Protein backbone atom coordinates (compact mmCIF):
# COMPACT_ATOMS: atom_id res chain seq x y z
CA UNK A 1 0.00 0.00 0.00
CA UNK A 2 2.80 2.34 0.93
CA UNK A 3 4.65 1.64 -2.35
CA UNK A 4 1.50 2.42 -4.37
CA UNK A 5 1.17 5.77 -2.61
CA UNK A 6 4.82 6.59 -3.33
CA UNK A 7 4.39 5.62 -6.99
CA UNK A 8 1.24 7.71 -7.24
CA UNK A 9 2.97 10.70 -5.65
CA UNK A 10 5.93 10.38 -7.99
CA UNK A 11 3.60 10.12 -10.98
CA UNK A 12 1.68 13.23 -9.91
CA UNK A 13 4.92 15.13 -9.33
CA UNK A 14 6.17 14.23 -12.81
CA UNK A 15 2.84 15.18 -14.34
CA UNK A 16 2.84 18.52 -12.53
CA UNK A 17 6.37 19.22 -13.79
CA UNK A 18 5.30 18.33 -17.33
CA UNK A 19 2.27 20.62 -17.04
CA UNK A 20 4.48 23.40 -15.68
CA UNK A 21 6.91 23.14 -18.61
CA UNK A 22 4.12 22.87 -21.17
CA UNK A 23 2.68 26.17 -19.93
CA UNK A 24 5.92 28.01 -20.57
CA UNK A 25 5.97 30.34 -23.60
CA UNK A 26 8.05 29.28 -26.59
CA UNK A 27 10.72 31.93 -26.07
CA UNK A 28 11.41 30.60 -22.55
CA UNK A 29 11.69 27.03 -23.84
CA UNK A 30 14.09 28.20 -26.53
CA UNK A 31 16.22 29.85 -23.84
CA UNK A 32 16.34 26.48 -22.04
CA UNK A 33 17.32 24.69 -25.24
CA UNK A 34 20.07 27.25 -25.82
CA UNK A 35 21.80 25.99 -22.67
CA UNK A 36 21.91 22.42 -23.95
CA UNK A 37 24.42 20.80 -26.35
CA UNK A 38 23.07 21.19 -29.87
CA UNK A 39 22.64 17.44 -30.39
CA UNK A 40 20.49 17.19 -27.22
CA UNK A 41 18.46 20.24 -28.20
CA UNK A 42 17.66 18.66 -31.57
CA UNK A 43 16.52 15.42 -29.90
CA UNK A 44 13.81 17.33 -28.02
CA UNK A 45 12.05 17.69 -31.36
CA UNK A 46 10.74 14.15 -30.93
CA UNK A 47 8.95 14.91 -27.63
CA UNK A 48 5.74 16.30 -29.10
CA UNK A 49 4.29 18.30 -31.96
CA UNK A 50 4.94 21.52 -30.07
CA UNK A 51 8.61 20.68 -29.49
CA UNK A 52 9.21 19.50 -33.04
CA UNK A 53 10.33 22.85 -34.41
CA UNK A 54 11.39 24.71 -31.26
CA UNK A 55 15.10 23.94 -31.57
CA UNK A 56 15.08 25.53 -35.02
CA UNK A 57 14.69 28.91 -33.31
CA UNK A 58 18.14 28.58 -31.75
CA UNK A 59 20.49 31.26 -33.01
CA UNK A 60 23.62 29.67 -31.54
CA UNK A 61 24.77 26.52 -33.36
CA UNK A 62 27.76 25.17 -31.44
CA UNK A 63 28.97 21.81 -32.75
CA UNK A 64 31.45 21.09 -29.97
CA UNK A 65 33.22 17.74 -30.40
CA UNK A 66 35.83 18.29 -27.70
CA UNK A 67 34.45 15.75 -25.23
CA UNK A 68 34.26 12.85 -27.67
CA UNK A 69 37.69 13.68 -29.14
CA UNK A 70 39.31 13.46 -25.73
CA UNK A 71 37.92 9.94 -25.37
CA UNK A 72 38.94 8.56 -28.78
CA UNK A 73 41.95 10.65 -29.82
CA UNK A 74 44.42 7.77 -29.34
CA UNK A 75 42.39 5.30 -31.39
CA UNK A 76 42.63 6.33 -35.03
CA UNK A 77 39.94 3.93 -36.25
CA UNK A 78 37.38 5.02 -33.64
CA UNK A 79 38.33 8.64 -34.24
CA UNK A 80 37.55 8.25 -37.96
CA UNK A 81 34.15 6.76 -37.12
CA UNK A 82 33.36 9.61 -34.74
CA UNK A 83 34.47 12.11 -37.35
CA UNK A 84 31.95 10.66 -39.80
CA UNK A 85 29.24 10.86 -37.12
CA UNK A 86 30.19 14.47 -36.44
CA UNK A 87 29.93 15.45 -40.10
CA UNK A 88 26.53 13.77 -40.38
CA UNK A 89 25.34 15.53 -37.24
CA UNK A 90 26.24 18.94 -38.66
CA UNK A 91 24.48 18.16 -41.92
CA UNK A 92 21.38 16.85 -40.16
CA UNK A 93 21.06 20.08 -38.23
CA UNK A 94 21.74 22.61 -40.97
CA UNK A 95 19.54 20.78 -43.48
CA UNK A 96 16.53 21.18 -41.15
CA UNK A 97 17.40 24.62 -39.78
CA UNK A 98 14.85 27.23 -40.83
CA UNK A 99 15.59 30.35 -38.78
CA UNK A 100 16.71 33.27 -40.99
CA UNK A 101 19.60 34.32 -38.74
CA UNK A 102 22.45 32.63 -36.88
CA UNK A 103 24.30 34.65 -34.28
CA UNK A 104 26.99 32.05 -33.52
CA UNK A 105 28.21 29.20 -35.73
CA UNK A 106 31.00 27.05 -34.29
CA UNK A 107 32.72 23.97 -35.68
CA UNK A 108 34.99 22.18 -33.20
CA UNK A 109 36.48 18.86 -34.32
CA UNK A 110 39.71 17.40 -35.70
CA UNK A 111 39.26 18.11 -39.43
CA UNK A 112 42.05 18.68 -41.92
CA UNK A 113 42.28 19.77 -45.57
CA UNK A 114 40.77 16.50 -46.83
CA UNK A 115 37.42 17.67 -45.46
CA UNK A 116 37.52 21.03 -47.25
CA UNK A 117 34.38 20.34 -49.28
CA UNK A 118 32.29 19.87 -46.13
CA UNK A 119 33.79 22.84 -44.30
CA UNK A 120 33.28 25.11 -47.33
CA UNK A 121 29.57 24.22 -47.35
CA UNK A 122 29.24 24.88 -43.64
CA UNK A 123 30.84 28.31 -43.99
CA UNK A 124 28.49 29.06 -46.89
CA UNK A 125 25.53 28.06 -44.71
CA UNK A 126 26.71 30.32 -41.87
CA UNK A 127 27.16 33.30 -44.19
CA UNK A 128 23.78 32.64 -45.82
CA UNK A 129 22.31 32.91 -42.32
CA UNK A 130 24.03 36.26 -41.75
CA UNK A 131 26.27 34.86 -39.02
CA UNK A 132 27.71 37.33 -36.52
CA UNK A 133 30.31 35.10 -34.86
CA UNK A 134 32.10 32.44 -36.91
CA UNK A 135 34.46 29.98 -35.22
CA UNK A 136 36.39 27.16 -36.87
CA UNK A 137 38.36 25.12 -34.33
CA UNK A 138 39.70 22.30 -36.50
CA UNK A 139 42.24 21.09 -33.93
CA UNK A 140 44.48 19.14 -36.34
CA UNK A 141 46.88 17.85 -33.67
CA UNK A 142 47.43 14.28 -34.83
CA UNK A 143 49.34 14.87 -38.08
CA UNK A 144 52.94 15.96 -38.46
CA UNK A 145 53.25 18.18 -40.38
CA UNK A 146 49.65 19.36 -39.92
CA UNK A 147 47.47 19.47 -43.01
CA UNK A 148 45.53 22.62 -42.30
CA UNK A 149 42.28 23.49 -44.02
CA UNK A 150 42.65 26.35 -46.54
CA UNK A 151 40.23 29.04 -45.44
CA UNK A 152 38.74 30.45 -48.63
CA UNK A 153 35.89 32.83 -49.36
CA UNK A 154 34.68 32.66 -52.97
CA UNK A 155 33.09 36.09 -52.78
CA UNK A 156 30.01 36.28 -54.91
CA UNK A 157 27.96 39.48 -54.73
CA UNK A 158 25.45 37.77 -52.44
CA UNK A 159 28.15 36.58 -50.05
CA UNK A 160 29.55 40.10 -49.82
CA UNK A 161 26.14 41.23 -48.59
CA UNK A 162 26.01 38.39 -46.09
CA UNK A 163 29.38 39.33 -44.59
CA UNK A 164 27.96 42.69 -43.61
CA UNK A 165 26.75 41.05 -40.38
CA UNK A 166 30.05 39.37 -39.42
CA UNK A 167 31.47 40.72 -36.13
CA UNK A 168 33.85 38.06 -34.76
CA UNK A 169 36.07 35.44 -36.40
CA UNK A 170 37.98 32.72 -34.51
CA UNK A 171 40.18 30.37 -36.55
CA UNK A 172 42.23 27.39 -35.31
CA UNK A 173 44.11 24.96 -37.52
CA UNK A 174 43.66 26.77 -40.85
CA UNK A 175 45.73 28.30 -43.65
CA UNK A 176 44.91 31.90 -44.44
CA UNK A 177 46.37 33.63 -47.49
CA UNK A 178 46.66 37.36 -48.15
CA UNK A 179 43.79 37.72 -50.69
CA UNK A 180 41.37 35.95 -48.33
CA UNK A 181 42.33 38.12 -45.36
CA UNK A 182 41.97 41.24 -47.48
CA UNK A 183 38.55 40.09 -48.70
CA UNK A 184 37.38 39.46 -45.15
CA UNK A 185 38.50 42.88 -43.98
CA UNK A 186 37.22 44.68 -47.07
CA UNK A 187 33.76 43.12 -47.03
CA UNK A 188 33.09 42.91 -43.27
CA UNK A 189 32.52 46.52 -42.19
CA UNK A 190 31.30 45.42 -38.75
CA UNK A 191 34.10 42.97 -38.01
CA UNK A 192 35.40 43.83 -34.55
CA UNK A 193 37.39 40.80 -33.40
CA UNK A 194 39.84 38.64 -35.38
CA UNK A 195 41.58 35.74 -33.62
CA UNK A 196 43.81 32.96 -34.98
CA UNK A 197 45.36 30.04 -33.11
CA UNK A 198 47.85 27.41 -34.30
CA UNK A 199 47.43 28.40 -37.93
CA UNK A 200 49.50 29.42 -40.95
CA UNK A 201 49.72 32.97 -42.27
CA UNK A 202 51.58 34.56 -45.16
CA UNK A 203 55.04 36.13 -44.78
CA UNK A 204 54.23 39.81 -44.29
CA UNK A 205 50.87 40.67 -42.76
CA UNK A 206 49.61 44.20 -43.33
CA UNK A 207 46.36 45.51 -41.88
CA UNK A 208 45.48 49.16 -42.08
CA UNK A 209 43.35 51.95 -43.43
CA UNK A 210 40.37 53.97 -42.29
CA UNK A 211 37.94 51.39 -43.63
CA UNK A 212 39.15 48.78 -41.12
CA UNK A 213 36.81 48.53 -38.12
CA UNK A 214 38.75 45.91 -36.16
CA UNK A 215 39.12 46.58 -32.44
CA UNK A 216 40.77 43.33 -31.29
CA UNK A 217 43.43 41.17 -32.97
CA UNK A 218 44.82 38.04 -31.36
CA UNK A 219 47.44 35.74 -32.94
CA UNK A 220 48.63 32.72 -30.92
CA UNK A 221 51.18 30.12 -32.06
CA UNK A 222 50.76 31.02 -35.72
CA UNK A 223 53.53 30.20 -38.19
CA UNK A 224 54.63 31.18 -41.66
CA UNK A 225 54.94 34.91 -41.18
CA UNK A 226 57.88 37.14 -40.30
CA UNK A 227 56.34 40.55 -39.73
CA UNK A 228 53.06 42.29 -39.03
CA UNK A 229 52.18 45.90 -39.80
CA UNK A 230 49.17 47.50 -38.15
CA UNK A 231 48.43 51.11 -39.02
CA UNK A 232 45.80 53.75 -39.50
CA UNK A 233 42.72 52.34 -37.74
CA UNK A 234 41.11 52.29 -34.29
CA UNK A 235 42.63 49.10 -32.88
CA UNK A 236 42.09 48.76 -29.12
CA UNK A 237 43.85 45.47 -28.27
CA UNK A 238 46.62 43.49 -29.94
CA UNK A 239 47.78 40.15 -28.54
CA UNK A 240 50.61 38.16 -30.08
CA UNK A 241 52.17 34.96 -28.77
CA UNK A 242 54.52 32.95 -30.94
CA UNK A 243 57.93 32.97 -32.65
CA UNK A 244 59.91 36.20 -32.73
CA UNK A 245 58.73 38.50 -35.54
CA UNK A 246 58.99 42.16 -36.50
CA UNK A 247 56.26 44.56 -35.40
CA UNK A 248 55.35 47.77 -37.20
CA UNK A 249 52.73 49.67 -35.23
CA UNK A 250 51.83 53.20 -36.26
CA UNK A 251 48.91 55.61 -36.18
CA UNK A 252 46.84 53.50 -33.77
CA UNK A 253 45.32 56.26 -31.64
CA UNK A 254 43.03 53.99 -29.57
CA UNK A 255 45.42 51.13 -28.81
CA UNK A 256 45.18 50.49 -25.08
CA UNK A 257 46.22 46.85 -24.58
CA UNK A 258 49.39 45.26 -25.94
CA UNK A 259 50.43 41.66 -25.22
CA UNK A 260 53.70 40.57 -26.80
CA UNK A 261 55.13 37.05 -26.52
CA UNK A 262 58.66 35.75 -27.16
CA UNK A 263 60.39 38.97 -26.10
CA UNK A 264 64.15 38.61 -26.24
CA UNK A 265 65.39 39.21 -22.72
CA UNK A 266 68.33 41.30 -23.84
CA UNK A 267 65.89 43.07 -26.14
CA UNK A 268 68.13 42.26 -29.11
CA UNK A 269 64.93 42.18 -31.16
CA UNK A 270 64.34 45.83 -30.18
CA UNK A 271 60.82 45.11 -29.04
CA UNK A 272 60.56 48.42 -27.17
CA UNK A 273 61.72 50.33 -30.20
CA UNK A 274 59.10 48.58 -32.30
CA UNK A 275 56.25 49.48 -29.96
CA UNK A 276 57.48 52.94 -28.93
CA UNK A 277 55.01 54.74 -31.22
CA UNK A 278 52.08 53.53 -29.11
CA UNK A 279 53.76 53.52 -25.67
CA UNK A 280 52.12 56.76 -24.52
CA UNK A 281 48.53 55.56 -25.00
CA UNK A 282 48.84 52.04 -23.54
CA UNK A 283 46.93 51.15 -20.38
CA UNK A 284 47.70 47.40 -20.27
CA UNK A 285 51.07 45.86 -21.16
CA UNK A 286 51.92 42.15 -21.12
CA UNK A 287 55.44 40.91 -21.97
CA UNK A 288 56.37 37.24 -22.26
CA UNK A 289 60.12 37.23 -21.71
CA UNK A 290 62.05 34.12 -22.65
CA UNK A 291 65.48 33.10 -21.37
CA UNK A 292 65.15 35.34 -18.35
CA UNK A 293 68.41 33.94 -17.01
CA UNK A 294 70.33 36.12 -19.46
CA UNK A 295 71.23 39.67 -18.57
CA UNK A 296 68.65 42.40 -18.98
CA UNK A 297 69.42 45.39 -21.17
CA UNK A 298 67.97 48.07 -18.90
CA UNK A 299 68.91 50.86 -21.31
CA UNK A 300 66.50 49.48 -23.93
CA UNK A 301 63.47 50.03 -21.69
CA UNK A 302 61.25 52.96 -22.64
CA UNK A 303 58.67 54.85 -20.60
CA UNK A 304 55.02 53.82 -20.46
CA UNK A 305 53.53 56.87 -18.75
CA UNK A 306 49.90 55.67 -18.69
CA UNK A 307 50.18 51.91 -18.18
CA UNK A 308 48.06 50.90 -15.19
CA UNK A 309 48.38 47.12 -15.47
CA UNK A 310 51.65 45.33 -16.20
CA UNK A 311 52.15 41.57 -16.49
CA UNK A 312 55.54 39.96 -16.94
CA UNK A 313 55.60 36.28 -17.92
CA UNK A 314 59.04 34.85 -17.23
CA UNK A 315 60.97 31.64 -17.05
CA UNK A 316 62.25 31.33 -13.49
CA UNK A 317 65.27 29.07 -13.78
CA UNK A 318 67.21 27.64 -10.85
CA UNK A 319 66.08 30.27 -8.33
CA UNK A 320 68.01 33.06 -10.07
CA UNK A 321 67.33 36.60 -8.90
CA UNK A 322 64.77 38.36 -11.10
CA UNK A 323 64.77 41.77 -9.46
CA UNK A 324 66.28 43.52 -12.48
CA UNK A 325 62.97 43.00 -14.29
CA UNK A 326 61.30 45.38 -11.88
CA UNK A 327 62.97 48.07 -14.04
CA UNK A 328 60.09 47.58 -16.44
CA UNK A 329 57.62 48.31 -13.62
CA UNK A 330 59.63 51.42 -12.76
CA UNK A 331 59.07 52.61 -16.34
CA UNK A 332 55.32 52.70 -15.58
CA UNK A 333 54.84 55.62 -13.15
CA UNK A 334 51.04 55.23 -12.98
CA UNK A 335 51.13 51.47 -12.42
CA UNK A 336 48.26 50.16 -10.26
CA UNK A 337 48.43 46.37 -10.79
CA UNK A 338 51.69 44.46 -11.19
CA UNK A 339 51.31 40.78 -12.16
CA UNK A 340 54.20 38.34 -12.47
CA UNK A 341 53.70 34.87 -13.92
CA UNK A 342 56.63 32.52 -13.23
CA UNK A 343 57.14 29.48 -15.46
CA UNK A 344 59.97 27.62 -13.78
CA UNK A 345 62.08 24.80 -15.19
CA UNK A 346 63.44 23.58 -11.90
CA UNK A 347 61.91 23.54 -8.41
CA UNK A 348 65.34 23.83 -6.81
CA UNK A 349 65.84 26.34 -4.03
CA UNK A 350 69.07 28.12 -3.20
CA UNK A 351 70.24 29.19 0.22
CA UNK A 352 71.14 32.84 -0.01
CA UNK A 353 70.16 36.14 1.52
CA UNK A 354 67.14 37.98 0.22
CA UNK A 355 68.14 40.96 -1.91
CA UNK A 356 66.22 44.16 -1.37
CA UNK A 357 66.09 46.86 -4.02
CA UNK A 358 65.03 50.43 -3.43
CA UNK A 359 63.25 51.79 -6.49
CA UNK A 360 64.56 55.16 -7.78
CA UNK A 361 61.03 56.45 -7.30
CA UNK A 362 58.38 55.00 -5.01
CA UNK A 363 55.40 53.44 -6.79
CA UNK A 364 52.75 55.93 -5.70
CA UNK A 365 49.80 54.22 -7.39
CA UNK A 366 50.63 50.51 -7.12
CA UNK A 367 47.78 48.86 -5.22
CA UNK A 368 47.87 45.19 -6.22
CA UNK A 369 50.74 42.74 -6.59
CA UNK A 370 49.98 39.32 -8.05
CA UNK A 371 52.52 36.50 -8.33
CA UNK A 372 51.46 33.41 -10.24
CA UNK A 373 53.61 30.31 -9.86
CA UNK A 374 54.91 31.35 -6.44
CA UNK A 375 56.89 28.40 -5.09
CA UNK A 376 58.50 29.93 -2.02
CA UNK A 377 61.99 30.23 -3.45
CA UNK A 378 64.20 33.18 -2.58
CA UNK A 379 63.67 34.63 -6.09
CA UNK A 380 59.90 34.53 -5.54
CA UNK A 381 60.17 36.17 -2.13
CA UNK A 382 62.42 38.93 -3.48
CA UNK A 383 59.77 40.03 -5.97
CA UNK A 384 57.13 40.21 -3.25
CA UNK A 385 59.46 42.12 -0.92
CA UNK A 386 60.21 44.61 -3.71
CA UNK A 387 56.54 45.60 -3.95
CA UNK A 388 56.08 45.66 -0.18
CA UNK A 389 59.10 47.97 0.23
CA UNK A 390 58.41 50.30 -2.71
CA UNK A 391 54.62 50.55 -3.16
CA UNK A 392 53.30 53.31 -0.91
CA UNK A 393 49.64 52.62 -1.78
CA UNK A 394 49.79 48.80 -1.70
CA UNK A 395 46.49 47.27 -0.65
CA UNK A 396 46.67 43.61 -1.67
CA UNK A 397 49.15 40.84 -2.41
CA UNK A 398 47.75 37.88 -4.35
CA UNK A 399 49.72 34.64 -4.35
CA UNK A 400 48.73 31.94 -6.82
CA UNK A 401 50.90 28.84 -6.26
CA UNK A 402 49.46 26.85 -9.14
CA UNK A 403 52.45 25.27 -10.76
CA UNK A 404 53.47 26.51 -14.19
CA UNK A 405 56.42 24.19 -14.61
CA UNK A 406 57.58 23.15 -18.03
CA UNK A 407 60.01 20.40 -19.02
CA UNK A 408 59.18 18.82 -15.67
CA UNK A 409 56.91 15.78 -15.39
CA UNK A 410 54.85 15.43 -12.23
CA UNK A 411 51.78 13.44 -11.41
CA UNK A 412 48.63 15.28 -10.42
CA UNK A 413 49.21 14.27 -6.80
CA UNK A 414 52.75 15.69 -6.90
CA UNK A 415 51.48 18.97 -8.34
CA UNK A 416 48.80 19.23 -5.64
CA UNK A 417 51.32 18.57 -2.89
CA UNK A 418 53.76 21.17 -4.22
CA UNK A 419 50.98 23.74 -4.50
CA UNK A 420 49.89 23.11 -0.92
CA UNK A 421 53.48 23.37 0.29
CA UNK A 422 53.84 26.64 -1.63
CA UNK A 423 50.71 28.04 0.06
CA UNK A 424 52.09 27.24 3.49
CA UNK A 425 55.48 28.71 2.62
CA UNK A 426 53.96 31.91 1.21
CA UNK A 427 51.91 32.47 4.34
CA UNK A 428 54.95 31.87 6.58
CA UNK A 429 57.22 34.12 4.48
CA UNK A 430 54.93 37.05 3.74
CA UNK A 431 52.63 37.48 6.74
CA UNK A 432 55.34 39.02 8.99
CA UNK A 433 56.43 41.42 6.21
CA UNK A 434 53.07 42.98 5.36
CA UNK A 435 52.36 46.41 6.82
CA UNK A 436 48.95 47.09 8.43
CA UNK A 437 46.15 47.47 5.88
CA UNK A 438 47.67 45.19 3.24
CA UNK A 439 45.69 42.01 2.58
CA UNK A 440 47.34 38.72 1.69
CA UNK A 441 45.22 36.47 -0.56
CA UNK A 442 46.58 32.97 -1.23
CA UNK A 443 44.44 31.18 -3.81
Task: Give a concise summary.
By secondary structure, the chain is an alpha/beta fold. The protein has helices spanning 2-22, 26-33, 38-43, 66-72, 76-96, 116-128, 157-162, 178-187, 271-275, 326-330, 378-390, 412-430; strands at 60-64, 104-108, 133-137, 149-150, 168-172, 174-175, 193-197, 204-208, 216-220, 227-231, 237-241, 246-250, 257-264, 284-290, 309-316, 337-344, 368-372, 396-400, 439-442. Helix 6 links the parallel strand 2 (104-108) and strand 3.
Helical fraction equals: 25-40%
Report the major sheet: 14 strands, parallel
Radius of gyration: 27 Å
**Gap from first CA to last CA:** 54 Å
Task: Give the CA-based shape.
Answer: globular
SS field, number of helical segments: 12
What does the model show?
The chain is an alpha/beta fold and 443 residues long. It is 30% helix and 22% strand. It has twelve helices and 19 strands. The chain has a 14-stranded parallel β-sheet, with helices on one face. Strands 8-10-12 form a three-stranded parallel β-sheet. A two-stranded parallel sheet has the order 4-6. The radius of gyration is 27 Å and the shape is globular.
